[in-house]
C-alpha cells in the first residue's frame, strides 16, 4: 500500500472540501427554572465568597460554547457497530462485483460515519484495501490476460479505457458511501491514502503497469499516434483518453514520455529522408512548415503537456531542418534566388531561425553575391562593361528585395550585402567608377521623355547606392567631370534641375571638397552667360557671326589638349573682337582657347532645299571650304588638311562624319567607310532629308581610347600629388611618426577619394625623402624637415 496521502481532492469531488468543514452537533435539552428566593444566611456556616460579575458591552455578540457533546449512544452499541461493519463490507463487495445493492446507501453512509466516530476508521481502511486487492486479483486479473492477447491497437486501448471508466464509477460510489471516513480519517491521518489515491494506485499497479499489459498499451499508443500523423484520425479520441489515464495516474512522464519521444524521432527521421528525396526544395520547405503546424495542433488536441509539445517540435526541427540544412542550402538556395521565390526564401529563413542555423544561410547568401556567375561576373567581364551599371542596379535591387521580404531586414544580412558588394565591385577598382559616371551622363542627357523627373531621380538614388561601394571615387570624379563639361558646354543636359539634384547627392555622399570643382563649373557657365550678354550689348556687338564664348576656370575643368587649327577668316575676326572686349573687362587675366568642344550652326543652301546643320567647329570649317568650289569640282584630302591645319586623326574623323555617316553632306571618292589621304570630296547635290534642322553625327565628341587612357593617367597623377600632400601635412603636424602610423593616417585622410595603394604610398614616401621633405632616422621613424 502506498505510504503517502493526497493533499487535494480531484476535480470530480469539488464539494468534498466544503463538506469536510461542516461539524455535526447532537440536540441539547435545556430546562429553565423560575428564580428562587435566597436562603437565610446560616450563622454556623462561613460566608459565601462574593462572585464577580463580568459585564459585557450591550452591543457585543452573545456566545454559547458547548463542549464534548456526543450523540446518544445506543444500548447495544457494539452490536450496532459490528452489524454496520458487516453491512459495509457486503456493500463494498457488491459495488465491486457490479451486483445489485440490497441495503440502503443512506444506512451504509450512517453506519460508516458511526464506525468512524467510534474510532474504527482503521478497520474500514483495512477492509477497503483488502476488498480492492481481492477484486483486482479475482476479477481484473483475468481481464488483463485477455487484453494482453489483443493485437489491434485501437481495440486494446478501447478495452483499457472501458476498464478505467468502470473503475471510476465503482470508485465514485465507494467514495460517496465512505465520504465521512475519507474526509475525517484519510485526509487527516499521516501515511493513510485517500480513497481516490488508493483506488487509482490499485488500477495503476494492477492494470496499467503490469509486465503483461504495459508494453502492449505503450506500443498501441505509439501506433495510434503514428496513424494520427499519417492522417488517420478515426481513433484519435481513444488515444486522447489513454493519454489522460496516464496523466491522471501520474505515470505519463515515467512510462510513456520516452517511448513516444523515441518513436517520434524514428518516424520523422524516416519521413525527412523520404520527403527530401522526393520533393523539390521549395516543396520540402512547405512540407516541413505544414508538419510543424500539424504537430502543434495535434499536441493541443491530445492534451500533451508543454514538455512533450516542445520535445516533439524539436524532433521535427532536428530531423527535418537541422540535419538537412546544408543539403537544403546547397541544392536549393541558388535556385530559389534565381527564380525569385521570396516566400520560400522567407520560409527557409524562418525555419533556420528555429534551429539557430541562420549563419549557414548567411554564408550561402554571401557566396551567392560573390559567385562567379553573379556579382563578380558583372564587374570582371569586359564584354559586359556597357551593361555593368544597369546589371549592378538590378542585382542590388533584387538583393534588397530579398532582405526586406525574405530576411526581415536582419542587420547581419544587410551588413553581409554591403561587405560583399563592396568586395566584388572593386575587383576592377577603376572600371565600375568610370562606368557609373558614364551611366549618369546617359540619364542626365536623356532625362525622362515622359516629362516626369521622378523616375530619373529614382535612378540617381539607385546609382548613389552602388556608388557608395566604389572605392575609386577619384576615378568617378574625373570621368563625371569630363561628361559634365560636355553637357554644360554643348547644352546637352536634359534638365538643369536634374543636374543640380545630382550635384546635391554627390556633395551629401562625398562632402563639399569632392564637389568643389563641380560647383565651380556650374558657376563658370552662369558667369559666362552673363558676360556674353554684356558683350552683345557693348560697342563690340558688330560681329558677323553670333559668337558664344565660355570663360572657364582652368583648374576646375577637365584638361583639354590644344588642337592645331586654322580658323576661317570670318570666325577668326569675330574671336579677336571678343578678346579685345574681355581684355577691357579683365585686364589682369589671360585667355587660352581650347576648341575641342566648339560647335556651330551652318545654314546650307543645297540644290534640293535649305538645311540648318548643327555641326562641330571642325565640321563647319570643312563645309565652309566648299563655298569657294565650283559645282562639280572636288577638294582633295590634302587640300582640306592644308586649309584647316587639322592633324590626320582629327581630320579623318571629321571627314568620316560628313561623308560616311547617316547624313552625307559630302560624297567621297572612292566610296568606302574609311578615309584615306588620296580620297577626294565634293558637295552632295542630291542630298535631301525631311528635317530642316539636322545634327551631324559628332564623332569627335565620343570619348576616344586615348582620352580614356589620359583620364586614368590624370587620376593616377592627381592621386600621387594628393598622397604627397597628405604625407607632408601629417609629418608637419606630428614632426615624427612611425611608418605604420603614417600609413594609417594618410589612408584615413584619403579614404574619401578611394582605396589607397600602399605600394604607391611607399614610393611617395621615398620620393619625399629624396626631395628632403622628410628623413628616415636609424630606428625607422620618419622626421619632418622644415
TrEMBL record:
The keyword Iron does not apply. It holds the Pfam family Cullin_AB. It comes from the Eukaryota. Keywords: Isopeptide bond, Ubl conjugation. InterPro entries: Cullin, Cullin-like_AB, Cullin_homology, Cullin_homology_sf, Cullin_N, Cullin_neddylation_domain, Cullin_repeat-like_dom_sf, WH-like_DNA-bd_sf. Residues 34-48 have a biased composition (Pro residues). GO terms for biological process: ubiquitin-dependent protein catabolic process. Residues 1-48 are annotated as: Disordered. The keyword Ubl conjugation applies. GO terms for molecular function: ubiquitin protein ligase binding. Gene3D superfamilies: Cullin Repeats, Cullin, Chain C, Domain 2, Winged helix-like DNA-binding domain superfamily/Winged helix DNA-binding domain. Residues 431-659 form the Cullin family profile domain. Belongs to the cullin family. This is Cullin-4. It comes from Neolecta irregularis (strain DAH-3).
